[in-house]
Amino acid sequence: MSVRERERERETSGRDAYYDVIYIDPPYNTEASKTDGNNFSEKDDVVASKFVYRDKFSRNGWLNMMNERLKLAKNLLKNDGVIFVSIDDNEQAYLKVLMDEIFGEENFVTNFIWQKKSGGGLNKLIYEGHEYILCYSKNNYNFCLSEKNKKMSGFIKYKDKNNNSFFINSDIIRNNFGKKDNKFEHRNKAYEDLSKEDKEKWNLKLDNKNYILVPFKKEPGKHLVAKIFNDERKTTYSIIKLPFTFVSGIWTKDGNNEVDSLNIDFQNPKPIQLIMHLLDLHSNKNARVLDFFAGSGTTGHAVLELNKEDGGNRTFTLITNNENQIGTNVCYERLYRINNGVGTKNEADFDWINKNKPYLNNLNVYDLKYFNTNPIEIDNNEIKEAFTKMLVDFNNTSQSSLFENNQRELLINLSTLKPIEKKE
C-alpha cells in the first residue's frame, strides 16, 4: 500500500474521521434596515425576526445563528484542524468575540485581510475595498502551517527571459504608515521602508538586483517587487515584504468571471484562488474539507483545482439549502459541469470547457427528508429507523451502536435555530 493510500485510509477510518479544514462564507448581515435591528446598540431589545439566507438579521439573531453553527463546526474539526470564516465590517468585531468564546482566544491564528477590489470609490472618504477572513485552530499546539507558506509569505517566484529569478505580487498596497509614492499612476499605494538589515536579507532572495516597481506586461495589473535602482537619480525603492495576513491580487470580479464561464447565475462568489490560498495553508494534502454555506460551490471547485496543481488527494463535503434553487441549479450544476465537461442536461455551450479539462472526480449527492415532528420525541419509530438507516448508509455507525453512542444528540443540541422572541 502506498503512503498516500495509507494516509487516506487513516483519514477515513473510524469515528475520528473529522475535518482538517472548514471554510464558510455565511450571510454578511448587510441589508440596511432599522426595523431589522441594523442600527440598534447591543443594549437594545432586538427581535430576531428573519432567518432567510442572504437576508438581514438583527444582530442578536445573526450571532445566535452563527453560535449554533460554529459550536458544531468546532466539534467536527480534527485536533490539528483549522477553520476560516469570511466576513466584512458589519459583523467582524462581533464575530471575533464569538469565535474567541467558542474556540478560545489562545486558538486564534490570524485575521486575514482580503483586498477584493483593485481600486477605491472616489466618492468615499475611506476606501472599503476589503473583507476579512477569521482563522482559528482547534488546538494551536497541534496546528501545523504549511512549510512553503511560512517561507514565501505571499511572494510568487518568476523567471525573466534571462532565467533570472524575481518575485512579484499584484497591486502592492502595504502598511498605511509607509511612505506614499506619487511617481506612479496607481492610487492607494503606500510603500514600506525596510531597515538596512532587512534589505540585505531580501537581497538574498532576488537574483536580479536592478528591477524597479514597474507594470508587469505579461499579466496586467501585476507588478515586479524591486530592490534598488542604481542610476544618477540615486532613488531607492524598498523591497516590500508582504504581510502574511494580507491577501491581494485576487478580485471579486475573478469569482464572477469564473461562474460566468460556466453559464451559472450567481452574484459575487468567492474566487477559486482565494479558497485555494487558504486550503494550501494546511500541511495535509489529503485534507478533508467542509463548507456548510456552500453557495455556488467555490470550495469544492478550489479543492479539485488544488489537487490538480499539487497532486493532493483532498476531499470535500459541501452543504447548502435549496433556497431559490441554489443547491440544484447553482452548486450542484457547477460541480457537475467542471467534473463532466457538460451540464446536467448535456449542455456544452459554456466557455470554461474551452480552456479547461474536466476533473472527472466522483461526486456523491444527498438530499434531506423533513419530518413534521419534535426532534426530541423518543418513541417515534419512523424517524428513529430513518435516522438509523441514514447514518448506516453513510458508514457512520452500526445499527446496534447508534443510540448507545448518543448520536441523536446532534439533533437535540441544535436548540436555538428559531429566533429568540422579545419578551414583553
Automatic annotation (TrEMBL):
GO terms for biological process: methylation. GO terms for molecular function: DNA binding; N-methyltransferase activity. Transmembrane segments: none annotated. Keywords: Methyltransferase, S-adenosyl-L-methionine, Transferase. The keyword Lipid biosynthesis does not apply. Gene3D superfamilies: Vaccinia Virus protein VP39. InterPro entries: DNA_methylase_N4/N6, DNA_methylase_N6_adenine_CS, N4/N6-MTase_EcoPI_Mod-like, SAM-dependent_MTases_sf. Residues 20-309 form the DNA methylase N-4/N-6 domain. The keyword S-adenosyl-L-methionine applies. Pfam families: N6_N4_Mtase. Belongs to the N(4)/N(6)-methyltransferase family. This is Site-specific DNA-methyltransferase.
